[in-house]
């Protein structure tokens, strides 16, 4: 294994990144209490026309905590599932849960009844905090099938002074459901009250963040307070963030990126957090312009959407100088196009739910190299405090240039999965996280991802990584997004199939795209089949859901060009 501060990596860091970074607070509540003590009047949340200060959020989260203790019987160690979009009540609920020593379980608002029921059951949650518009179809039937005893609802209209985009809230109406508690009513009813303080330790669990399920059923990663505080500090140091920065919440708050790169850092500095309910390119660009946002961390699909939205490209985003992306591979051509549009260079940042967001990053002020053989953009070098290696199938460490699985150790790595000791032992033997991501390290110390192990395509005995084919397709001027999978082939065993969607006003015939790839890659790699779709199925962080593509792949006759 190699540490982040081994040669030659030291030369890749900017000055000012410490070799021995430490978590500045023992837990997340202490981190926020320091902000309350030192900067109570500083803006913390901008939600369209509403601004909440640090003191506002403190008072309201304390009141909600007192209410949940009294009305719901919430106690230390209990789990609370929270299914909300990027709204102020997400932050208020998070702090209230922590003030009682309980554990937040953030859940994707797109989850339906079956998915929500599964996470309620697995986590053993007693309380559900949910957007009221989701309750009739998702929450109510899920609650009836589980052990949930209290439901608190809130609305995207709460705290909304002006929308800035009528399309986001068209048709939205308050719809309080019988048998539920209203979040703002609880805050008003307990205004000025605070629960008795609960002493938290760094190893107490702050979040159960469920994995996206790209490799199997979702598992609840136990992100501790130490994990969250430490990696919030990593972002502050790595990106050179200060209290003068303004965070544009591009990533969803329920995802580990939003939890740490947005919420964690905002509480740490503190700095203003610009929330826009859910991602809409035109709306986010307008909010970024309005609040002079300087920092954004999100999926590459969000930045692609900004580039392809005619309203967004007309906005003044010159203040947005600190941009990071993770969660999905990034084509070098996309980074170049974004810089041409908006002037900011996208720094690759790599991490997982199990690393509590960042474990690698491109040092700030530097540009990631592109591997000359695969065309892959580097995900950077290990961030402060992390030890990373590339191993083969038997766990033996591989030298630079050889492809294997990334294994990681560091202060952000979770202690395990909730109530799954066997899964924990398999994924984290001896505390070393086996990521399931395949890649290599070059002689200079830069890391590159190739793909997930399970997505490898074997065509006529040759290995083809979907990522490489996708990077080539992204070079075509008509391609907006693409996804590549292997499909059964009677002759080759498997053959390469690509799904593509086009930019507005652009198009291309499948034969043209096949020829485009054929001219740029080895004969066994280029796609023999192209299917044109409106949208590529992805996780919320922009990872292509290749299992869905494989499921919907239709076997086509090989193109004459094959």
Walk me through what this model shows.
The chain is of the alpha/beta class and 562 residues long. It has two domains: 2-283 and 379-441, 3-Layer(aba) Sandwich (Rossmann fold), CATH 3.40.50.12780; 456-552, 2-Layer Sandwich (GMP Synthetase, Chain A, domain 3). 29% of the residues lie in helices and 23% in strands. The chain is built from 16 helices and 26 strands. The strands form six sheets. The chain has a nine-stranded mixed β-sheet, sandwiched between helices. Strands 1-18-19-20-21 form a five-stranded antiparallel β-sheet. The chain has a five-stranded parallel β-sheet with strand order 5-4-6-7-8, with helices on both faces. The relative contact order is 0.10.
In short:
By secondary structure, the chain is of the alpha/beta class. It is built from 16 helices and 26 strands. The C terminus is likely disordered.
């Amino acid at each position: 294994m190699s540490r982040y501060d081994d040669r030659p990596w030291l030369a890749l860091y900017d000055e000012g990144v410490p070799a021995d970074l430490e978590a500045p607070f023992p837990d997340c509540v202490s981190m926020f209490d320091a902000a309350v003590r030192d900067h109570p009047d500083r803006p913390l949340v901008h939600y369209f026309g509403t601004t909440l200060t640090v003191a506002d959020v403190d008072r309201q989260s304390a009141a909600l905590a007192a209410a949940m203790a009294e009305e719901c019987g919430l106690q230390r160690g209990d789990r609370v599932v929270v299914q909300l979009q990027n709204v102020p009540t997400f932050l208020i609920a998070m702090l209230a849960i922590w003030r009682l020593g309980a554990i937040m379980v953030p859940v994707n608002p797109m989850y339906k009844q079956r998915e929500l029921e599964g996470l309620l059951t697995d986590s053993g949650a007693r309380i559900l905090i949910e957007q009221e518009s989701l309750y009739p179809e998702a929450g109510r039937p899920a609650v009836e099938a589980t052990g949930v005893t209290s439901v608190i609802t809130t609305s995207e209209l709460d705290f909304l002074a002006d929308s800035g985009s009528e399309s986001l809230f068209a048709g939205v109406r308050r719809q309080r459901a019988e048998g539920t508690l209203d979040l703002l009513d609880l805050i008003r009813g307990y205004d000025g009250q605070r629960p008795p303080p609960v002493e938290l330790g760094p190893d107490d669990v702050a979040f159960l963040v469920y994995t996206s399920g790209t490799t199997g059923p979702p598992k609840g990663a136990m992100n501790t307070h130490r994990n969250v505080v430490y990696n919030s500090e990593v972002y502050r140091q790595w990106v050179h963030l200060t209290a003068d920065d303004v965070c544009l919440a591009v990533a969803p708050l329920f995802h580990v990126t939003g939890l740490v790169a947005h919420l964690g850092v905002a509480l740490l500095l503190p700095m203003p957090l610009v929330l826009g309910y859910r991602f809409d390119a035109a709306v986010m660009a307008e909010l970024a312009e309005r609040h002079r946002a300087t920092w954004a961390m999100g999926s590459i699909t969000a930045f692609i959407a900004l580039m392809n939205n005619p309203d967004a490209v007309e906005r003044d985003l010159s203040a947005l100088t600190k941009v990071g992306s993770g969660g999905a591979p990034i084509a070098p051509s996309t980074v170049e196009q974004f810089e041409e549009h908006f002037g900011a260079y996208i720094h690759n940042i790599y991490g997982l739910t199990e690393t509590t967001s960042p474990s690698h990053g491109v040092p700030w002020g530097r540009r990631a190299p592109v591997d000359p053989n695969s065309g892959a953009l580097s995900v950077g070098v290990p961030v402060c405090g992390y030890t990373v290696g590339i191993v083969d199938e038997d766990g033996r460490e591989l030298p630079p240039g050889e492809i294997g699985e990334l294994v990681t150790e560091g202060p952000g790595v979770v202690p395990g999965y909730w109530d799954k000791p066997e899964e924990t032992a398999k994924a984290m033997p001896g505390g070393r996280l086996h990521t399931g991501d395949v890649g290599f390290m070059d002689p200079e110390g830069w890391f590159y991802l190739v793909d997930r192990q399970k997505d490898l395509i074997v065509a006529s005995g040759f290995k083809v990584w979907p990522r490489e084919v996708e990077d080539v397709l992204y070079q075509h001027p008509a391609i907006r997004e693409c996804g590549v999978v292997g499909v059964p082939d009677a002759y080759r065993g498997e053959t390469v199939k690509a799904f593509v969607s086009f930019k507005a006003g652009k198009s291309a015939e499948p034969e043209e795209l096949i020829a485009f790839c054929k001219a740029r890659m080895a004969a066994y790699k280029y796609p023999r089949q192209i299917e044109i779709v409106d949208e590529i199925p992805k996780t919320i962080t922009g990872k292509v859901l290749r299992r869905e593509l494989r499921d919907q792949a239709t076997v086509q006759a090989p193109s004459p060009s094959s």
